[in-house]
Amino acid sequence: MTISVVVPVYNEEENIRLLHERLKEVLGRLNKEYEILFVDDGSADRTLSILEEIHAKDERVTVLSLRRNFGQTAAFAAGFDFARGDIIVTMDGDLQNDPADIPKLLELIKDNDLVSGWRKKRKDPFFTRRLPSVIANWLISKVTGVKLHDYGCSLKAYRRDVIKNLKLYGEMHRFIPAVASWYGVRVAEVETVHHRRMRGKSKYGISRTIKVVLDLITVKFLQSFSTKPIQFFGPVGIICSFIGFLISLSLTIDKLFFGRDIGSRPLLLLGVLMIIVGIQLIGMGLLGEMIVRVYHESQRKPIYVIKKILGPENK
Ligand code: UDP
Ligand code: MG
Predict the structure, then answer these.
(1) Which residues surround ligand 2, an ion (CB under 5 A)?
(2) Residue 304 covered by a domain
(3) Range of the structural domain that residue 123 is part of
(4) 132 Cβ closer than 6 Å to some ligand 1 atom
C-alpha cells in the first residue's frame, strides 16, 4: 500500500514548513511508501519558493504550481491527476487539519473506499462558518441521501480508483462522498481534531454558502438527470398537461352544452398555460435524452462503473 498526500495551498507561506515537518513525522512512522504533493494554487506570497526549498531537500515531495488561483477544487483535481499512491489522502495546508489523524483514516480505509473526517469540535467562527455548515451538512445529507456530519472537512482518504473515476467541476470537491456513494462506493466517517488557524488568513467567508447551495442543486440535478432526463421532466409534464386538459374540457362543456361565456374566465388562461407548460416539460425531457446520449457516447462514458474484472489474465 502506497500513500499520496495531496495538499492544496494558497498563500500559506507561514504554515507549509511546519506542515511538511509534521507530515514527515507521521508518515515516516507508518513504514509505508509515501509521497506528498503540494499544489500551489497560484499563491502571491512566498509559498512557491518555500515549496521549492522543501522539494530540493525531500525527494518524497512533489510540487505542482498552478498558473493562477483556480480554487481549491481545481487544486485537488491537479493533485489527484499526479498522485501515484494506492490511497490518496487530502488535507488543508493551514494546519487546521492534524496530520496525526492520518493513521486513523488509513486504518478505516482497509474496510472502506472513502473515509471522511468529521471536525466534531470545529474551531471556526460560529455565525459565518459553523452555523451555515451545520445547515449545509443537514441539507446535503437530506438531498443526496448520503449522511455525513461534515462534508466540508478536507481531511479525507480515498482508494485510488474512487478518485480516478471522478471528474471535478466548480466547487465540487466536498460532494465527492455523495457522488462516489451513488457509484456504490463504501463511505465511512471518523472524528478528527480541528485546530484554530494560527497563521495566515482564511480564504472563505459566508459567501461560500451560496456557492455550496448552487453546487448542491447541480449535483442533485445531475444525479436525477444525467442518465434519465425524460423520467425527471416527463411525469411533471404529464401531470401539468392532464390538469390543463381537465380544466379546458370542463370549460368546453360549459361553452358547448350550457352556452356560458368562457372568454373572460381566469380558468381559461390556467388551462391553456398548464397544457403548454406540460408539453414543454416533456419536450425538455426529450431534448435532455438526446443530450445525454451525445454526452455518454462522445466520451465513451459508460453508464456503469466496474469495481473489478476477473478475466483470463487474472487466472
Ligand atoms: N486554498 C486553495 N485555493 C483557494 C483557497 C484555499 O488552495 O483558492 C487552500 C488553502 O491554502 C488551505 C485550504 O485550501 O490549505 C483551505 O482553505 P482555508 O483554510 O482558507 O479554508 P477554511 O479552513 O477557512 O474553510
Ligand atoms: Mg483553514
Answers:
(1) 92, 94, 96
(2) no
(3) 3-225
(4) no
Q: What is the pLDDT of residues 123-171, one digit of tens each?
A: 999 999 999 999 999 999 999 999 999 999 999 999 999 998 888 887 8
Integer Cα distance of 180 and 12 in angstroms? 30
Report the nearest atom of ligand 1 relative to the CA of 203: 20
195 CB within 6 A, ligand 1: no
Cell of 102: 492520518
Based on the domain organization, do 134 and 156 belong to the same domain? Answer: yes
Task: Give me the pLDDT at residue 166, please.
Answer: 84
Q: Considering its fold, how many domains does the chain have in total?
A: 2
Q: What is the dihedral of CA 262, 266, 271, 275, to 10 degrees?
A: 120
Beta-carbon contacts of 176 under 8 Å, excluding residues fewer than 6 positions away, are: 114, 156, 158, 162, 163, 166, 168
- Is the Cβ atom of 199 under 6 angstroms away from ligand 1? no
Set of cell numbers at residue 98 = 492534524
- Strand stretches in the chain, DSSP E: 3-9, 34-40, 61-65, 87-90, 114-119, 156-159, 187-192
d(CA 116, CA 174): 10
Q: In the prediction, which pLDDT does 244 show?
A: 98
